[in-house]
């Protein structure tokens, strides 16, 4: 197998997002965009990933600090364009003779399967560079793939540099490339900023390669929904919707019923067991685990750190945060359980809540197995309710009066 590395471009200022946050840290279904691109690279096998950072570099590094074993951070001091960004990796890759994947951190919808196809094609064709393209109904904003009468690629023209005829081309560049490393860095020497934006374009490296007789292959292997690059908040919402669809499809394939996919939001990090039913207007955010045969919602809000066992029923306006519910728990109406451990078969009556924050610190509530908590109960943390406790409706329970129950 060929040695392979990846370069991910993530240094841009992202003025169109109108943000202080580095663009690649903006979240799509709960994870920063860059996380998805890293996943895709790792799943096809790369030895190292060079992530080019610039604007907000420290924030990006910090966010991925625990996930950076195979990452080499490369600084791009000034954002002079995508070719310049790649060139910033030269000192690391000068002697590398393998394959280099180049991807953008603002393309979170990339799938591992597409990269696999790209690699297979590159190896089968013995090309110097291979790129995967997409055909879009509305290609506005993307670089256009220009081909000759025989279908051979001639180059990529950026949207702002297109003639009206070129602008009508619907085949676009999603920025998924594989290069022979040595050929890539030689080509970058000849990229000039001769364009409207006066930037060094990576897309021009392909024209340089073609002009110098190298084989460049463009395969139309990217589905339109996978090609979306995020340059604006509007595109961020489009990418999020597409990712949400993928998450839900996968859950449904694994035996989860989602009654109304359009009115349900499930975080990419959530795990849900077989035969669980997610009713409409459920919002799951963060690392959340739900067991089998549960019924969740409608209108439930499950937040980070929620762990739910099997056969649990949560009804309308139930909010959970950093809380575990053992098998058989019922919380059917209007409750908030935060920082709590709820035992088996506990019934949480309508409108019952944990008072987990005393104004200064967050405290835990533990409810033993088989407790019955009547409607309208306030459980003041820190609190431990022994197994089988029966709390009548409307009580305010603290550790001081727990003996009197
Ligand atoms: C780029 C491609 C375009 C393609 C589109 C796909 C070029 C010149 N154009 O355009 O053909 O259709 O992606 O989404 O490559 N970046 C740096 N340093 C820089 C400039 C950019 O790291 O100096 C990074 C950005 O953070 C971003 C990526 O490179 O993650 C792409 O840059 P962006 O400005 O978004 O390029 P597009 O105009 O989208
Ligand atoms: Ca972009």
Tell me about this structure:
- The protein has 405 residues and is of the alpha/beta class.
- It has 2 domains: 4-227, Alpha-Beta Complex (Spore Coat Polysaccharide Biosynthesis Protein SpsA, Chain A), CATH 3.90.550.10; 255-404, Hexapeptide repeat proteins (UDP N-Acetylglucosamine Acyltransferase, domain 1).
- The chain has 9 helices and 32 strands.
- A hairpin with a 5-residue loop joins strand 8 and strand 9 (153-157).
- Helix 1 (33-44) packs across helix 5 (112-125) and helix 7 crosses helix 8.
- The relative contact order is 0.09.
- Calcium ion binds next to loops.
The total beta strand count reads: 32
What would CATH call the architecture of the largest domain?
A: Alpha-Beta Complex
Range of helix content: 10-25%
What overall geometry do the principal axes of the alpha carbons give? elongated
User: What is the CATH third-level topology name of the largest domain?
Assistant: Spore Coat Polysaccharide Biosynthesis Protein SpsA, Chain A
- Bound ligands: uridine-diphosphate-N-acetylglucosamine, calcium ion
Tell me the distance between the termini. 69 Å
The number of distinct structural domains comes to 2
Radius of gyration, rounded? 26 Å
Main β-sheet description? 11 strands, parallel
Strand content range:
25-35%
CATH C-level class of the largest domain: Alpha Beta
Mean pLDDT: 97
Q: Quick one: CATH superfamily of the largest domain?
A: Spore Coat Polysaccharide Biosynthesis Protein SpsA, Chain A
Q: Which residues form runs of ≥5 with pLDDT under 50? A: none
Based on secondary structure, the structural category is: alpha/beta
Number of helices: 9
